[in-house]
Specification:
binds zinc ion; mainly alpha; two-stranded antiparallel ribbon; elongated; 4 strands; single chain
């Protein structure tokens, strides 16, 4: 870090001012520029030696490798590790909630139906649903026919197309086998 001390030339004043090329992090003695350079290098996954050499070619002074490794060891790696642990715990919690829904109802198709019931109930509390499009899930079809008959229920053409393609491919394969 560069430090510039200026003294007023007026003999009656003589005031001294000190200027620093970078601020410290609030409440610490860590220079923000030095630390953020180390942080940037580690996140980019690049080589500190090469970055420092590049800066040297530009005539810029910067931190030493020793300082870089000190920040890496004492501050950066522990922070990244703690952040990752927190992120991982949140992900696991989220997955547990999903797992609970499945356990509550037993199987994957039952979960789809339970999810549909909850979402539909939520939607109906907010808006008037006139038309509903889904795949040909049998419980959902039955529910729409029996309990929500005032809503027009369409099947998603993509799912039907997928099924038709599957059936046709099967027929063609059988014929080919027979003729061959
Ligand atoms: Zn002055």
């Amino acid at each position: 870090m560069a430090e510039v001390v200026t003294v007023c030339v007026n003999p009656q004043c003589g005031e001294r001012t000190t200027w620093f090329s970078q601020p410290n992090f609030h409440g610490t003695k860590i220079a923000a520029g030095k630390f953020l350079l180390s942080y940037g290098i580690i996140l980019a996954g690049t080589s500190a030696t090469k970055v420092f050499r590049a800066l040297k070619h530009m005539g810029m002074t910067c931190i030493s490798l020793t300082t870089f490794f000190k920040y890496q060891r004492e501050k950066l790696i522990p922070s990244i590790y703690l952040h990752w642990k927190k992120y991982q715990a949140e992900l696991l919690d989220e997955l547990k909630t999903k797992e609970e829904l499945r356990n509550e109802v037993g199987s994957s198709p039952a979960m789809e139906y339970a999810g549909f019931c909850r979402s539909m109930e939520y939607l109906l509390s907010l808006v008037a649903v006139k038309t509903f499009v889904s795949d040909r899930h049998s419980s959902i079809t039955k529910h729409m026919r029996e309990k929500l008959s005032d809503i027009i229920h369409y099947f998603d053409i993509w799912h039907i197309k997928k099924k038709v393609t599957k059936v046709l491919t099967k027929i063609v394969d059988v014929k080919q086998l027979q003729s061959g």
